[in-house]
Amino acid sequence: MRNSSSLWSRLIGAGERLYSGRRKLATVAAVGLAISLGYHVIFGQNGLTMYEQKKREARELDVELKRLQKENEQMSGHIGRLQNDPSAIEHQAREELHYTRPGEVIYTLPAAPAKK
């Protein structure tokens, strides 16, 4: 019986210490929560670091989009010339297919040697 009363008094003492330290425990819990929340805001899945990365990717994609739009406009102009201008068709055929007019000679030069 003495053993159980000793255990009971120790439990009561631990409970009293816990109750008297409740303010410290609540402060530690609040600080831990604030640190965890701050970490999530900065480094989390939708945090500031991801925001900056997505912003940088958006700028890079915008530059790529503008480059592709410019290339598309150039190609559209080239297609329009090929559809409507016989001299453009002739120029393209002579350049790509090496067509010649009667009496013309095409000289093909060897490729430049690779530099070391």
TrEMBL record:
Entry keyword annotation includes Cell cycle: yes
Coiled coil stretches, renumbered: 51-85
* Transmembrane intervals: 25-43
Query: From which domain of life does this come?
Result: Bacteria
Keywords recorded for this protein, A-Z: Cell cycle, Cell division, Cell membrane, Coiled coil, Membrane, Transmembrane, Transmembrane helix
GO CC, sorted alphabetically, is: cell septum
GO terms for biological process, alphabetical? FtsZ-dependent cytokinesis
InterPro entries noted in UniProt: Cell_div_FtsB, FtsL/DivIC
Q: Which PANTHER family match?
A: CELL DIVISION PROTEIN FTSB
- Name recorded for this polypeptide: Septum formation initiator family protein
Q: Which organism is it from?
A: Terriglobus albidus
